[in-house]
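Recap from last week: sequence in, structure out.
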Amino acid sequence: LQFFGWMSDQFSRKGLILVGHGIMAVGGLLYGAAGTIGPGSTALGAVILSRMLVGFAMGTRSSAQSYLTTKSLPEERSQNLGFAQAVSRTGLFIGPAFNWIVVSLPDGVV
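Predicted structure tokens:
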């Protein structure tokens, strides 16, 4: 948390958020491709690396909340932060549900 606070002071918050989202995208793609990378320990290593990348990039979340707080009008600040939190929690619910639906499909459909 302190590292990303320092980084947002050195550079722009917006740039840090974009880099964090880029790292999350790479981690997500690596996680999705881990099964095709190779057998056994190679695939497991890819999964572990992908989760580490996403976990590291999640440190930019505090910078995103700070940016949202700074750019919001005082009377809209709590509503905007609540909406951002609701969207985040909805994504945490929809992601695994979508995965379950895709995994449940018969072979050859996807």
